[in-house]
User: Which sequence fits this backbone?
């Protein structure tokens, strides 16, 4: 059973637009929700993360929105740039010894 | 400061063989986790080690094993390789068990 479901699988956005990626989870025991960015040939790099006691967190152009009752969280990339083109993964952690990743979203920002 | 390093970068094995992958964490980090990333999918958690003890395990068969050494480096061993074991194997280190993870570039394993 997939613990974290991510959508869309791929996304094309014009430069300056907003990119939105969504994730849903089932296990209410998850206590940490990070987003990772991965470029080809590289390992994932942490972008931003949130805990379930907060509904929104913003860092620069990146914002996580968290809906605990719906068991959903999303990543918003404002003013998307071609350099943001990468694969993005959501993840959910439980007690920091169980880690589950979404299936990934390939973002392409058109110049 | 060097990031997480993994060796080898690429590896080709045949079915039934054994493989050992190595990871050196960021200096000062005491926790190492291993992940399997099949092409086009998200990483799948395999193991977490902290202070040389296994602290977490994902849903992988007993053919997969790992250990952490006194210098906090780690090895992932896979026995009786199957074609389905072909993947990018990622190592991530963190200072403590509950701290931010930093990923290495991975080892690309191909099983023929």
Assistant:
């Amino acid at each position: 059973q997939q613990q974290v479901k991510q959508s869309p699988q791929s996304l094309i956005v014009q430069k300056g637009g907003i990119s939105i990626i969504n994730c849903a989870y089932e296990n209410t025991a998850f206590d940490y929700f990070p987003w990772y960015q991965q470029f080809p040939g590289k390992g994932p790099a942490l972008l931003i993360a949130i805990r379930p006691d907060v509904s929104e967190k913003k860092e620069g152009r990146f914002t996580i929105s968290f809906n605990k009752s719906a068991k959903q969280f999303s990543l918003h990339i404002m003013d998307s740039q071609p350099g943001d083109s990468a694969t993005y993964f959501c993840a959910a952690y439980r007690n920091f010894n169980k880690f589950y990743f979404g299936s990934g979203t390939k973002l392409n920002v058109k110049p | 400061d060097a990031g997480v390093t993994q060796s080898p970068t690429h590896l080709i094995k045949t079915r039934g063989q054994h493989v050992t992958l190595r990871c050196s964490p960021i200096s000062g980090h005491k926790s190492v986790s291993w992940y399997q990333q099949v092409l086009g999918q998200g990483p799948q958690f395999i193991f977490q080690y902290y202070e040389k003890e296994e602290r977490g395990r994902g849903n992988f068969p007993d053919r997969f094993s790992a250990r952490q050494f006194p210098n906090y480096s780690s090895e992932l061993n896979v026995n009786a390789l199957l074609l389905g074991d072909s993947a990018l194997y990622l190592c991530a280190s963190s200072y403590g068990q509950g701290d931010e993870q930093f990923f290495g570039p991975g080892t690309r394993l191909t099983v023929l």
User: Anything to note?
Assistant: Chain A has one domain: 4-110. The interface with chain B takes residues 4, 6, 36, 41-46, 49, 89, 91, 96-104 of chain A (CB under 8 Å).
